[in-house]
# Entry
Amino acid sequence: MCGIVGYVGEDKSVEVLMRGLRRLEYRGYDSAGIAVIDDDGVLNTRKRAGKLAILAGDLEANSINNGRTGIGHTRWATHGGPTDANAHPHLGDNGKLALIHNGIIENFSVLKDELLSEGFTFESETDTEVAAVLLGREYQRLGDLSAAFLSVVGRLDGAFTLLAVHQDQPGVVVGARRNSPLVIGLGDGENFLGSDVAAFVEFTRRAVAVGQDQIVTITPQVVTITDFEGNPVEFEEFDIAWDASAAEKGGWSSFMAKEVSEQPDAVANTLLGRIHEGQAVVPELEAFGDDVLASIRRIVIVACGTAANAGYVAKYAIEKWTRVPVDVELSHEFRYRDPVLNAETLIISISQSGETMDTLMAVKFARESGAKAISICNTQGATIPRESDAVIYTHAGPEVAVASTKGFTAQIAALYLFALHLARVRGSITAADAAAQVVELQAIPAKIATVLLQESAVHELAAWMSDTRAVLFLGRHVGFPIALEGALKLKELAYIHAEGFAAGELKHGPIALIEPGQPVFVVVPSPRGSAHLHPKVISNIQEIRARGARIIAIAEEGDVAVLPFADTVLRIPLAAPLFEPFLAVVPMQIFAMELATVKGLDVDQPRNLAKSVTVE
Ligand code: F6R
# Structure
């Protein structure tokens, strides 16, 4: 939520900042702006409401001087609407200091009153401008940007990453971080700052994650980090595991289309190095020791949105294989209801970005209450893994489209590996059964590839349904969270009312929604699975069909029982029941993407959304 980039080095700040913002735009696209100190030592700022292209067009029509030092921002509006005035950077110290911000400064109105009483004035409605003016005031007093930051950060409540430059200190960018992400890119004679490594990966793959409550100062040659008291902090470098081309569209019509198609690789890469001699062995869990894993009495999964849907899917597998009870909780509900937690509770957070504030707060709360925490995360150097006892990274590669797709399937793969590892340690599964599940898991990438081949059938369906105003999704067992996920995708991409229901729940109320022509997607469980599930879902289909529903069934190859009752059948390859979610979700992702495209919508940047939600 909000993308931040900082640069110091050669006389190319405008290009570096704009390229970084292009890669960060998925984090917010309400407005964008840059500030650059030119070679005459003058601070130039340009900012525009709307997507980055508007700022880029503005700069093309009327360029600003280049320079060696600068900051850039792409915004997801919180305080104040998406206007030119509210766009970042904001200025302090009579226009000599520029500041950008990701997060929310909760005590901004108290600080604003203080500054107003001292005669300072404001041009925007934002909390960020308050921080800029405060920082400017402290710069005037102390004459040094890092010192001014040290003086200001203690006065700010809430979540923030702040970056600033001052025209009297060219060649320096200073940043501070509390509860919002900030990563350093280490170059040769140049250094970078970014909300995530995408901001600078085309220039360097050497990075450092800035820790909680730290201030970082970069010059072309030197990087310094201190804590909020000014004590020096040692830092460790890491190598970014993917290159810039992974974050490019590479000929696809959208990032989402590319990412949907990358799911076979996302799952295969997540399995890599975690299967030995036919058994799931997750090296990252060694941090715990088998005795700790064996002592777990309860698992609580915390996550939001699509990541929570991955958690709901995994609950079925974890409970079946490990016999440990699992609750799945939306992170933002979790800590406010005084949950029962202790040292025998394991918290598993799931977050593609690793920055979702609701999930971060849930993890911190759980650990403070004595629970152990594992993070399932796709982003190196992100905050949630750093706040956890262990992390199992998904290796899906960068996910740029706002709607999560390959992140989701990779999360389920990581959770299944976790479950099989835990089951082995606890002895709750036979080696033969565990090995059979691993074989199923290893077969998933090729099976997803088969589903992707049938894309055109889904495109036709979407074109035919372009005027549809509401769609329902039904599933049972692991098909239920897939119904939730199908509905979420359609809502967020095509702005169509969509609901996912457990098929058995229909008769308890939602069946009243069915009227002639109502499209209903049904995830049909395998007839080879539980003896009861398949016929029950077929009965559910009949019940709604009798009331005029138009049925789109997602059913496995060879399931002929579904044919008399479905208007359209989308086929998925045979898989053991617990593995069907990997396959059944794919046509739903494609359907939502295609329907949005047919409606002329931007599938990568749906309205009102941002990729990583770093506010509560
Ligand atoms: C929907 C979507 C969101 C995210 C949710 C959690 O397509 O992407 O629902 O899944 O905001 O994000 P992460 O996984 O980054 O914590």
About this structure: Residues 304-307, 351-353, 356, 359, 403-404, 488, 492, 612-613 surround fructose -6-phosphate (CB under 6 Å). The first strand starts at residue 3 and ends at 8. The chain has a mean pLDDT of 94. The first helix runs from residue 13 to 24.
